[in-house]
Amino acid sequence: MILNDILSQKRKDIEELKRRFPLARLQSVVEHKPPAEHRSFFKAISPNKGIHIICELKKASPSEGVLREDFQPLRLASQLEYAGACAISVLTEPHYFKGRPSYLKTVRQVTKIPLLRKDFILESYQLYETCVLEADAFLLIAAILTDQELHHLIKLGTSLGMDALVEIHTEEDLKKAVQSGAKIIGINNRDLKTLSTDADRAKKLIPHIPKGIPIIVESGIYNSDQILEYTSLGVHSFLVGTHLMKAPDVVEAVQSLLRTNAKWK
Predict the structure, then answer these.
(1) 141: Cβ–Cβ under 8 A, 6 or more apart, which residues?
(2) Alpha-carbon distance 90 to 59, whole Å?
(3) Maximum CA pair distance of the chain?
């Protein structure tokens, strides 16, 4: 299963990073680094401000291979912000998504909106690294973490000044996320095992999420009609990656999704 391969490689990467740059040294960097400009991911997806599109920068994916040959993260980030993105999700996983951790700092230099680190975060070391990379938020996948790990990582990330987006796929994931203190929940329509997408996944889970917790629908979003259908269920925030990265004109692709605001009102 591809997920097992990704996690196995990720653990190897973490051990190599620790060998080159030990945890104590990384913690010292965090402790002494000047505070970065605060960009609240939570506020950016506040549900009382219309439709929110979190645009994802990713060159490739395990399900579709390379999505964009001319992948220029700085140019794309500027275009996505101009088009109306409320935040940018930055893939930093190098082996299967062709991302780089360094993209976070470089993209931050050309944008003013919050940045979400999208990766397979398994332990504290990665959150200290995420803080050094100046991300405003980070993804935690409930299915690959124990209850204790999820709770600890949410708490640690919050103490470092970042927001945690907790991704769920099942009701069991949802229960774990809520009990662990998740403040933002993302429902991924993509099956982690088969990599196929199912729009009904989010529709089934949305009614079970406690009121007051912002919801983000992830994967399988291609048009404004889909977004309009989700808004009828009370969801206003969407993370879109593949559709945008495959679009010849990313500005038009984002703005066509945001036209849902006109239909919705």
Answers:
(1) 120, 121, 167, 192
(2) 10
(3) 54
Long-range interactions of 98-106: CB distance < 8 A, separation 24+: 98/58, 98/59, 98/60, 98/66, 98/71, 99/57, 99/58, 99/59, 101/129, 101/133, 102/133, 103/57, 103/73, 104/130, 104/133, 104/134, 104/135, 105/133, 105/134, 106/73, 106/74
Dist CA 236 CA 86 (whole Å): 12
* Options 81, 118, 189, 261, the catalytic residue: 118
What average pLDDT does this structure show over 51-62? 96
**pLDDT exceeds 60 at position 101:** yes
**Domain spanning 2-14+50-264 has what CATH number?**
3.20.20.70
CB 180 within 8 A of CB 50: no
Q: Known catalytic residue: 61?
A: no
The HSE-up count of residue 259 (CA atoms within 13 Å, CB side) is 11
56, 81, 93, 134: the catalytic one is 56
Least confident of 14-18, 93-97, 197-201: 197-201
Would strands 65-66 and 60-61 be described as parallel, antiparallel, or unpaired? antiparallel
- Has 58 been annotated as catalytic? yes
Residue 218 is a catalytic residue? yes
What is the tens place of the pLDDT at every residue in 228-252?
Answer: 999 999 999 999 999 999 999 999 9
What are the domain boundaries of the chain? 2-14+50-264
Q: CA-to-CA distance for 92 and 95, rounded, in angstroms? A: 9
